[in-house]
Amino acid sequence: MSKTDFNERTAIRDGQEMAKAGYKVPFGTVSITLKAKQLIEDAIERKWLTKGRYVKEFEEKFAALFGVKYGIAVSSGTDADAIACASLYDFGAKRGDEIIIPSLTFVATGNAVLQAGFKPVFVDINRETLNIDPLKVKKAITPRTRAIMPVHLMGKPAAMDEIMAIARKHKLYVIEDAAEAHGAEYKGTKIGSIGDMACFSLYAAHIVTTIEGGMIITDNEAIAQAARSLRNHGIEGKFQFKRIGFSAKMNEIEAAVGLGNIEIFQDILEKRRQNVRHLIKAFSKFEKYFWYLKEESHEVLGPHAFSIIIKPGFNFTKDEFVSYLEHEGVDSRNLFYTIPTQTESYQFMGYKLGDFPESEYCSDNGTHIGCHQDVGPSQMDYVIEVVDKFLKSKGHTV
Length: 398
Ligand SMILES: Cc1ncc(COP(=O)(O)O)c(C=O)c1O
Hints:
The chain has helices spanning 3-10, 16-20, 34-46, 53-65, 77-86, 107-115, 134-140, 160-169, 221-231, 252-263, 265-283, 318-327, 339-342, 357-365, 377-393, and strands at 70-74, 98-102, 119-123, 145-148, 173-177, 185-186, 189-190, 197-201, 214-218, 290-292, 299-300, 306-310, 332-334, 366-369. Helix 4 runs parallel beside helix 10. The strands form 3 sheets. It has a 7-stranded mixed beta sheet with strand order 1-9-8-5-4-2-3, sandwiched between helices. A 4-stranded antiparallel beta sheet has the order 10-12-14-13. The chain has 15 helices and 14 strands. The chain is globular. Helices cover 39% and strands 14% of the residues. The chain starts with a helix and ends in a 5-residue tail after the last helix. By secondary structure, it is of the alpha/beta class. It folds into 2 domains: 3-25 and 265-393, Alpha-Beta Complex (Aspartate Aminotransferase, domain 1); 34-123 and 130-262, Type I PLP-dependent aspartate aminotransferase-like (Major domain) (Aspartate Aminotransferase, domain 2, 3-Layer(aba) Sandwich), CATH 3.40.640.
C-alpha cells in the first residue's frame, strides 16, 4: 500500500507538523480515522463525553486483540503501570514492598512503581536485546519482592520464559510493561497475554493510540476489578472508597480515536514491520559499527521504533551521529537515560554511576528513529543513505 493510499483510507494526518518542521523522516505519527471522527461527532451530539459506551467497546475490542478477557482503559500508560502495581495490594502486598524493573526504560516505568507506593528495584539489561537480564533478576529478589515488571522495549519481547519461571518459583506477579510492544509475539504467544497483567501506552506515536491514554489487560477477574476501582479514586459500590485510588479514567473522545485505530491495527502493524525489517536487512552492512534492533526466530516484533547503539572504539560520538541525522532531516530520540543513575529525580535512591554498565552504555551511545506507518521504504532507504554518508564522512568504508 502506498503512503497516499494509507493516508486516504486512514484519513487525515501523517506527521504534518513534523514534516513542516523539515523532517524527512519524522519520529512519530497519529492515525485518526474517518470512523473515529464519526464516533467523536456522535459522542458530542449525545453530550456523553466522560467514560461511556465507547470506552466499554474499546476495552472489549482491545482485550480481544490480545486474546485476553478484560481491558481496563485509563488516561495514560503511566497510569496503567501504576494501577497495575497498586492492584497488588488486593493480594497481600504492603506499601514499600519491591517491584523489579529494568534500569533502561522510559522514566514512566519507575515513576509508576513509586506512585503506587512500591520501591523500584532496578536490574541491568542485555545490550543486544535492550531488555531486562533474567540472570540479574534472580539476584535482585528479596523477601519483600512482590512483582517483576519486564519492559518490551522498542517492541522487542523480553525473555518471558525465563522471567515467568523465576516468578513462579518465587511466587511473584508479572506485570508486562507493553507500552511499546502492541502486536509483538513471543514464541507464538501475544505479548501482553503472558504475565498476570499487561500495560499499554496509547500515547500518540504508539501503534494503537487514543492520543493520550493507556490500557491494562488481564485474564484475572479480581485484578480487573481492582484496576477498575483504582482508576476511579478507589471506588467500590455506592460511593464507598475501598482503595487509595487514582483519577485516571479514559473519556469517550479518546476511546473513539482508539476504536478507529483498532480497525486499522493490522495495517499499521504490517507497515511498521515492513519498515523495520527493511532497516534490519540494510543495517547488516553496518554491523561492525552498531548494535541495532533485531528480530529473532522465536519472536515477531511489534515495532515502536528502531534502536541504534554505537559499538565501542570508533572515532565518532553519539552526539555527532545524532546531529548528522538531524541535519539531514532524520528525527531521533535518545535511547532513554538509565533511570537510577542518569536521572536527576532518582538520585534520592542512592545508586551510583557504574552500577548498571550495560544500560549506561546504551544510554550514552544509543538513539532510536521512527519506523511508523506514515513512512515507507523510500524514507527507510534515505535513512540508510544518511548513515552510509555519515560513516564515510568519518573515513570508514562501508
Ligand atoms: C516503556 C514505557 N512505559 C510507560 C510509558 C508511559 O506511557 P504514557 O506516556 O502513555 O504515560 C511509556 C511511554 O511511551 C513507555 O515507553
